[in-house]
Amino acid sequence: MANTGxxxxxxxxxxxxxxxxxxLCFQLRAGELVQIAGxxxxxxxxxxxxxxxxxxRYEGEVLWQGKSLLKHxxxxxxxxxxxxxxxxxxxxxxxxxxxxxxxxxxxLNNNDDKILSALAKVGLSGFEEQACHSxxxxxxxxxxxxRLFCIPASLWILDEPFTAxxxxxxxxxxxxxxEFVSEGGAVLLTTHHRLSFAQDFKVVTLGEVANV
Length: 212
Ligand SMILES: Nc1ncnc2c1ncn2[C@@H]1O[C@H](COP(=O)(O)OP(=O)(O)OP(=O)(O)O)[C@@H](O)[C@H]1O
Description:
Blueprint: E1 6-15, E2 18-28, E3 33-37, H1 44-51, E4 59-64, E5 67-68, H2 73-79, E6 80-83, H3 95-105, H4 112-121, H5 137-145, E7 155-159, H6 167-182, E8 186-190, E9 202-205
Parallel strand pairs: 3-8, 3-9, 6-7, 7-8
Antiparallel strand pairs: 1-2, 1-4, 4-5
Helix pairs in contact: 3-4
């Protein structure tokens, strides 16, 4: 099959002599969502960073559309939208400026109409030109999430996308994920929240770590 999405084959990674995961195998196809689950410190963020092309601390293979991520990194990154668990925005810039910057990194210039409609979609109408440091934690998170709607991608990798988001916002994000998947997008995410998702989805659970 030509379009095989993301394939993780026999992935191994460790930190400070502690194995985070070994022989990890799973596949994420177009039109699917996979949740990476596991307790604090089990390696979810480490895995997502590897799959976002930000870390090479691993052994094994990661393929996108059947091609090695290592050999076709640039091509892969053009199709990927990664939102990490940090704020991911520059506090001194406004939402509009932050998103202009994100879009420009993908070669998308003169994209203000799309950016403004993305900001409206995430509930930030009226805050477009206010410095991000003066926004609430949830609003800052929403600035980051607005990237979903102004940067085209076929794979979303999202690390704790619901952090700091209110209850209504969580349902909205779940709906956005569901719509993206229905349109053939692929989503890989971590969350400690119990996902309420319209379609079936897979859960890949990373190993237990010390109980606290
Ligand atoms: N930059 C780093 N330097 C050293 N150790 C690190 C670093 N980043 C992560 N680790 C270690 O790797 C392990 C896995 O961390 P990771 O952030 O991937 O876990 P996680 O499953 O995402 O946790 P959480 O649910 O708390 O977000 C932890 O033991 C952590 O201490």
